[in-house]
Write a structure and sequence with these properties.
This protein has 1236 residues and is of the alpha/beta class. Helix 11 crosses helix 12. The longest helix has 27 residues. It has a 17-stranded parallel beta sheet, with helices on one face. Strands 5-6-7-8-9-10 form a 6-stranded parallel beta sheet, with no helix packed on it.
């Protein structure tokens, strides 16, 4: 191409405006392919373009012709960071639509010396402009020049900082739509009443405290065409009568996210709303609503209020949305015959109204997460057009027995108590596509329709039931089945003929069953992409060569032996999991061959870089519930991409972060992008190390780790973001060489960390989601942000804090929630997971599901199976860290095979160590003073019931503990190991904790009530009567630990008792305890002291206590338990509980410690009786002594009768939600009882 207008070539390019110009085909200086471009702007100019190529000539001719023939009517200059409008835009005076959103345009300053064009004041030059968008330009004053663009039909000036609208806006007589939301407006000018063509007025997310007077006036059809009032996200507290009476013609009112309470006095005036059809009052403070006066209402949304009562007029009602309230019933009168959809989920409903069956047009019912016990009896008969039924997470025991042909397409009944489906359910639901019955009690399935074409189920979820082999015969009748989740059932065998019929199968989950083999037909399913068969007993696998679509194969935690990798893996396989097959032998050459052909991911779910046998050195495998003593914690994870093509979640697992007692774990979820999570996983460890070098105290380093990571995302983090949770566990140096582990964590977004403490879920993170965090919604509101109707910040994301997404700042920020936890002895494991798990599985349910699974790998996989069984189809990432941090001196240790973990309470441990040193010094002084007393006293002989004698020496002042300690250390029982070396004498006053339970304990619902009554009775009946004598007689034998007081009490055993000396030492060291972590306030019962009553190693028929420092004559105490008490007994009990009474008798013929005898020897004994009451759960049989029935009589030989009032402290209540191993009153003594 050649251009010539001058004699010589120009070095600078020539610019010519083709707008309002012309193009001609000419011959110039012998050039046949030549174009003449003419511009008439700023004087006539022209330019010649010559071409040598015909195709290029034609292309330029078409473009120039198009540019000069017709000027564009719209221009989009949004997000250009413009301070001035470009001069060239004013060439097109026929412009009709102009988008100037997200710039920094301004009005012409008064002091301007040289006139320039491009200010907002020049917009009136567009004489044909009809639509103008000036949103998000940081305008603080309404540009008056806009009021002179009389042709405007639509004006959008939202997301600025306008505080008022000028009265001159009334000049825009043609204005039909006015968007002034997300500003700082508090009032509106009355002159707006002249905007008679206006029909759209958006006032949401301003600072209105009352509805402006002009707004209801504009809704009058005689004044304007405004039909809708959109005032969401303001500060409106009430709807005055003078306002409501003027809203007669309003059809749609949106008052969500305000401060409305709507008392009956205000709602009574709603009779004036004769045309109201849509009312949105979500996220207010309404606790009671009676809106029956509005007969025209078709749509009502009052979700997320504190509503406990609702009454609606059903004359015209079509959509009712009242989720996330506290309703126990829904009152709609008259019956809503036009009802299309009803959502009453997350309430407290026990029954659905019977009239739902009569709603002919009803299509959707959502009543999940209630307490429903039954459904309307004719719902599946008369509900002819019902398409979706969601009643999951209720207490249903059965579906309605009567079933007729329906239009049901989706049925969600997971997490109920259903034992069987109606006989005709699967036969009559001919349009059913999705059936979810996960976590019920189904043992069989009803028959299908004889006509196979009518069995149309494509997705079937039956995880966590009790289905057997026969169920697969029914399931195989669904020839269109694409997804089958039947994990964690009782299936032992899959028939080849059944699997062969499922030709359309794409995803199959058969984990957690009892399968020993898979049929060959599984490897022939050509459309199968995902096969999960972990946690079975598989010994071999079929040939998967014909499964050409297989991408994911999970056969971990089985009994696989010799497996050929070449035959195992299909050519397209992307993920192979064979972990936890301890006997699996793999030839390394086969892996090498496969890796040469394609990329294969062999997942090591332990995070410890272990390899399969034969591929390198592998340490000894532990048993499933065995804790490796060399590691502070065990780690397992599971993740899946779901139905998405890529996994947008990344994990960080560093077991040794600096040293062996310091680890870092993290999960990052990018939503639909995988770029940000990958960057964070790579850079966060280095950032964290740098921050720790600067400051290791407090939680400041965690905050700066997040902020620095956000900064390092740079351009990638402008429009992309990720949720994240980062956990840093480390051992902190403490005095006396005691263990102290702390967990520092931070999180943004919706990834959550849940700690299992005493078997209960403790949420350590904060969920930054608009629907669950009112404080965050307020912060977004105060930062001039908006939350759209789908609960998304600026219509983009529901998360209010993310790493990245800088373009949404300051509405979405990276500032994390921080938390620091001193791990305790009863903290067992933590779960870190993204919304793919927590959206479907509750916190406590997740804890309960994996509480008894010692292997964190298997536990993580089960949670994934459960979430997918509930219907999760998105990315799922689950990371479980099970603690095992008792290494070194501590107050108590776990048994090696115990599933639970134990972490020392360091403060109590340090205090105990200090007291122990003082006691040792005191002990030496006492020993020196009692040398003569030891030599004068004889030895006490103890004879067993079987005739075998065993001698144990006692001194009158100090027992010989070494022999007892030797028995404890060598008897091989489950007693807690000594925290001291075996060659060191153990203090008799040293308290040793019992091991945590090896089984799931029973939760203690009435622990607080029981403790209250126990405290009152002990205070009134024991403390005042006997503490003076106690304090005078135990001045040198008291043991203090923390805030609790313990008195060591000696037992002198009767000659006919059956005594085991090993048990003497065992009880001495494991039963006489005081909680070192106790404090002044009431604490709930600890599972470590109630759940292990079945362990014979802890409770035995020969259990008793050792003698202590003073040898005293026998005092006989009999404790009898009985249920009936006199009716006139008015002592306090817990309401609704059964009363348990313990009668304590004392034989006063026995001398006291001081030698006095209340009764002469040989006289008739005088028995003093004391009644102690306990309030127990009515579902139990009363207070239980381990190993005894409630009718047993328990006797204890106690050398000090003063302690009789507190003898109940030794009763272990296993079933009545009580814990009596320790007394909360610091002045109450602890006495053990012995069962003879």
């Amino acid at each position: 191409m050649n251009s010539s207008t001058d004699k010589y070539k120009r070095t600078n390019p020539t610019v010519i405006q083709l707008a309002k110009g012309a193009v001609e085909e000419v011959k110039f200086k012998g050039h046949s392919l030549c174009l003449k471009l003419t511009s008439t702007l700023h004087g006539e100019k022209y330019i010649y373009l010559s071409f040598t190529d015909r195709q290029e000539y034609d292309r330029w001719h078409r473009k120039c012709k198009k540019a000069t023939d017709k000027l564009p009517t719209s221009a989009d200059l949004s997000n250009c960071h413009l301070e001035f409008l470009p001069e060239t835009i004013f060439i097109n005076d026929q412009l009709a639509m102009l988008n100037l959103r997200h710039n920094v345009l301004k009005e012409r300053p008064i002091e301007e010396d040289i006139y320039t064009i491009g200010w907002l004041d020049d917009l009136h030059k567009f004489t044909m402009l009809r639509s103008l968008n000036l949103a998000d330009n940081n305008l603080k004053v309404f540009p008056l020049a806009l009021c002179h663009v009389h042709t405007l039909v639509e004006l959008n000036i939202a997301s600025n900082k306008l505080e008022e609208i000028p009265a001159e806006i009334s000049e825009l007589s043609n204005l039909q739509a006015l968007h002034i939301h997300n500003n700082h407006l508090r009032t509106l000018p009355g002159e707006m009443i002249s905007l008679r063509k206006l029909f759209i007025l958006v006032l949401a997310f301003n600072h209105f405290e009352v509805i402006p007077a002009v707004v209801p006036q504009l809704t009058d059809v005689r004044i304007s065409e405004v039909e809708n009032i959109i005032m969401a996200g303001n500060q409106i507290q009430s709807l005055p009568a003078e306002v409501i009476t003027k809203m007669r013609y309003v059809k749609k009112a949106d008052f969500r996210m305000n401060d409305l309470t709507l008392p009956p006095s205000e709602v009574a005036r709603f009779t004036a709303l004769e045309h109201l059809t849509h009312l949105d009052i979500r996220d207010n403070r309404i606790d009671e609503l009676d809106i029956r006066v509005v007969k025209t209402l078709e749509y009502l949304n009052c979700e997320r209020n504190a509503m406990y009562s609702l009454q609606v007029n059903g004359t015209s009602l079509k959509n009712l949305l009242v989720a996330h309230n506290s309703l126990d019933r829904v009152n709609i009168n008259p019956k809503p015959e036009w009802l299309l959809q009803i959502d009453v989920s997350y309430n407290q409903l026990k029954h659905l109204p019977e009239w739902l069956s009569d709603c002919f047009f009803l299509q959707k019912i959502n009543a999940c997460h209630n307490t429903l016990v039954e459904l309307p009896s004719r719902l599946l008969v008369d509900g002819k057009k019902l398409k979706s039924l969601r009643v999951n997470h209720n207490r249903l025991m059965a579906l309605p027995a009567e079933v007729d042909t329906t239009f049901l397409e989706e049925v969600y009944i997971q997490h109920n108590l259903i034992t069987h489906l109606p006989d005709n359910f699967l036969r009559r639901t001919n349009k059913l596509r999705v059936l979810n019955a996960t976590k019920n009690r189904l043992s069989s399935l009803p028959p299908l329709n004889e006509n196979q074409d009518l069995n149309k189920v494509q997705e079937l979820y039956l995880t966590c039931n009790a289905l057997t082999d026969s169920a697969m015969g029914v399931i195989s009748g669904y020839s269109r089945l694409k997804l089958l989740h039947i994990a964690h059932n009782d299936i032992e065998h899959l028939r080849d003929s059944d699997i062969r019929r499922l030709e359309m199968m794409q995803e199959l989950n058969i984990c957690g069953n009892q399968l020993r083999s898979l049929p060959a037909s599984v490897g022939e399913l050509s459309k199968l992409t995902i096969l999960r068969a972990h946690s079975n007993a598989l010994e071999s696998l079929p040939d998967f060569k014909k499964a050409t679509s297989l991408r994911v194969l999970d056969v971990g935690h089985n009994h696989l032996l010799n497996v050929s990798v070449t035959n195992l893996m299909a050519s397209q396989l992307n993920l192979l999991d064979m972990s936890l097959n301890r006997q699996l032998k793999v030839d390394p050459k086969e892996f090498k061959t496969v890796k040469n052909r394609k990329s294969v991911c062999l997942v090591d779910l332990t995070g410890q870089n272990r390899t399969l046998p034969g591929l390198g050195h592998r340490p000894r495998e532990l048993q499933e519930d065995e804790i490796d003593p060399s590691q502070a914690w065990k780690v397992g994870f599971s993740e899946t991409s779901g139905t998405r093509n890529k996994l947008s979640v990344a994990m960080l697992k560093i077991l040794h972060f600096g040293n062996e007692d310091e680890s870092v774990f993290a999960v990052f979820d990018g939503g639909y992008n995988d770029e940000v999570p990958k960057i964070l996983v790579e850079r966060v460890p280095g950032i964290l190390r740098d921050e720790l070098k600067r400051d290791r105290s407090g939680t400041g380093y965690m905050r700066y780790t997040f902020l620095t990571a956000h900064k390092m995302l740079k351009g990638t983090g402008q429009k992309l973001g990720a949720s994240g949770a980062l956990c840093h566990i480390r051992r902190v140096s403490a005095s006396n060489n005691m263990n102290q582990y702390t967990l520092h964590l931070g999180n943004v977004g919706d990834i959550e960390v849940v700690l299992c403490r005493r078997g209960e879920a403790v949420v350590l993170t904060r969920k930054f989601v608009t629907t669950e965090d009112d404080e965050e919604c307020l912060r977004v509101y105060q930062s001039d942000g908006i939350i759209t109707e789908d609960n998304k910040v600026s219509g983009t994301t529901k998360n209010t804090r993310l790493l990245g997404c800088s373009y949404l700042s300051p509405h979405v920020i990276p500032d994390p929630h921080l938390n620091a936890v001193a791990l305790r002895h009863d903290d067992e494991f933590i779960i870190i997971a993204n919304r793919g798990l927590w959206k479907y599985v509750a916190y406590n349910e997740a804890i309960e599901e994996v509480y008894e699974i010692g292997n964190p790998i298997v536990a993580a996989k089960k949670l994934q199976d459960l979430a997918q069984g509930y219907g999760s189809r998105e990315n799922i990432s689950i990371l479980i860290i099970r603690f095992n941090t008792d290494k070194g001196p501590s107050l108590g240790r776990l048994r090696p095979n115990n599933r639970s973990m134990s972490i020392d309470d360091v403060e109590a441990a340090a205090q105990h160590e200090e007291q122990r040193l003082l006691k040792q010094q005191r002990k030496r002084e006492i020993s020196a003073s009692n040398t003569t007393l030891r030599s004068s006293n004889g030895k006490v002989q103890r004879q067993s019931h079987g005739g075998d004698r065993r001698r144990m020496q006692y001194s009158a002042g100090e027992p010989d503990i070494d022999a007892a300690a030797a028995d404890v250390m060598s008897n091989g029982s489950s007693c807690v190991d000594s925290p001291f070396p075996s060659n060191r004498s153990i203090s008799p006053n040293h308290p040793v904790l019992k091991p945590l339970p090896n089984q799931k304990y029973i939760k203690k619902n009435a622990a607080a009530e029981w403790d209250g009554i126990l405290q009152k009775r002990l205070t009134n009946d024991v403390k005042d009567k006997e503490m003076k004598q106690v304090s005078s007689s135990i001045s040198n034998e008291d043991v203090f630990l923390g805030t609790s007081r313990m008195v060591a009490v000696d037992l002198d055993i009767n000659s006919n008792s059956n005594i085991s000396m090993e048990k003497v030492a065992q009880i001495r060291n494991s039963h006489v305890i005081t909680r070192p972590w106790a404090n002044d306030e009431r604490t709930t019962a600890n599972p470590a002291y109630t759940a292990y009553a079945d362990d014979d190693s802890l409770v035995d028929s020969s259990e008793t206590m050792m003698a202590s420092n003073h040898s005293v004559k026998n005092v006989r105490h009999t404790i009898a338990m009985f249920e009936n008490i006199t009716k006139d007994d008015s002592r306090e009990t817990v309401s609704g509980s059964r009363r348990k009474v313990i009668k304590v008798e004392r034989d006063e013929r026995t001398p006291y410690v001081d030698g006095s005898a209340p009764c002469q020897g040989g006289s008739v004994p005088k028995v003093h009786t004391e009644i102690l009451e306990y309030a127990c759960d009515s579902s139990n049989d009363g207070i239980h002594v381990p190993g005894m029935s409630n009718s047993s009589v328990v006797t204890a030989d106690v050398h000090r009768p003063q302690y009789r009032g507190s003898v109940e402290s030794a009763l272990h209540k296993r079933q009545a939600n009580c814990d009596v191993d320790t007394m909360h009153d610091p002045e109450v003594t602890i006495v053990e009882i012995a069962r003879l």
